[in-house]
Amino acid sequence: xxxxxxxxxxxxxxxxxxxxxxxxxxxxxxxxxxxxxxxxxxxxxxxxxxxxxxxxxxxxxxxxxxxxxxxxxxxxxxxxxxxxxxxxxxxxxxxxxxxxxxxxxxxx
Length: 108
Prior knowledge:
The chain has 108 residues and is mostly helical. The chain has helices at residues 3-23, 40-76, 91-96, 104-107.
């Protein structure tokens, strides 16, 4: 495993998640109560979009924390090992998601 390649992948993934978060920031703003300019159904649609984007933002924040944790494990030399049982995580699993903290057995 090439540490530099893994680090670049993790940083690129973090940058991508952060860019998605910034792009969707407008959807998380409070929805105005003015029903004169916006109809009731349009407002309900706006509230639904807002709720969905808040949930997506929560997932993105969790992903950034996972990526930061993976970067820390990379620096400390613990990258590639399960944080629960300390067994080696499969290469294919890490290739699919370089921030994965658990081996397949502990993930079950």
